[in-house]
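Re: weekly structure request thread

Next one in the queue (340 aa):
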Amino acid sequence: MILHGNIADRWSTSSTIQRGSVWSLVLFLSVFRPAPIACIEAQRPLVIEVDNDALNVGLFGQPSDGEYTHGMRLIVSLRGKSPMGEWLFPALAACGSETPTRACQDWNIVVGQQIYTPGPVPRRLWPTRRPFAGWLGTSIQTGIHGERVDHQVSLAVGVTGAASLAEHAQRWFHDMLAESTSPGWSEQLLSEPTLELGYRGTLRPMRSRLGERLTVNLRPVWGAAGGTVRTEVCAGLEAALALMTGADGGWPSVRGEHPTARAYVLGGIFTSWVGSDLFLDGGFLRHGRSVGHEDFVHVAEVGAGIQFQGRRIEWRVIRASRLYATQPEAHTYTTLSIAQ
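Done, posted below.
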């Protein structure tokens, strides 16, 4: 798991408006069915993910409008070999091909934006809090699926600062709600290109049946990242209780391989050693304000998912320990994922 900037406990009127607006967004996403994309095979989902603490509903922490304040991702899953997969693993066949093999590969394209702010109060300077910052970019994720271990190698490119459009995105949303936007965006981290190489590994889940309908799933995960955005090494453990899982069903999650569970609950704990964090250290070139970063970050998450009218909907609450020494408290946000 790679964590990016992931508060005040004040649940203000503006936060209440924000909560209603986010629920409107949730309703829109749940009924929205995008037009078919020719290069996507029928069984490969299109996933929309929204990160925001307005959906916390008090679990692990009250909603606020600071720290990692908002994020969105569009994930397109593809069969075949990615350009990176062709170069790194030319001998591995594409998943679903007729070539017999013990392992295969597929890939995702991810487009996303992340927005970071010191807090909800419209101030220009927060001497002890993280700087305003944004990121906009895309990544290619190549998956290697073996008999016992799944690997994912990712390459992400993007941009920070004004070019990330984070200020414009927040200002547009606040204008729609008739809210003010902090003048602190004039002090945001400067624009610079980013490059990040990441790796994530998981063991195939250990599974135990509880009767005919329930299964308990457990798997360790590990990963690393290096580049201009974040340098870290992480490890963790994930667990899931799934209802009506098929014999060949994979991990019961929106992003799992061949998920068949009708409903599930899940949780996980993760620890990361962090070597650098662009959003806290003032930029890769160190030309912005820095608050430093904690060397070790601990993350816990819980969630649930269902399969409904051909869609998979998943809700997860994620709580991260302090990312920098002067952060007021641990931060909590929610990720809503919808697979079409």
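The helical segments are 13-31, 83-88, 166-176, 278-281. The longest strand covers residues 263-277.
Next request, please.
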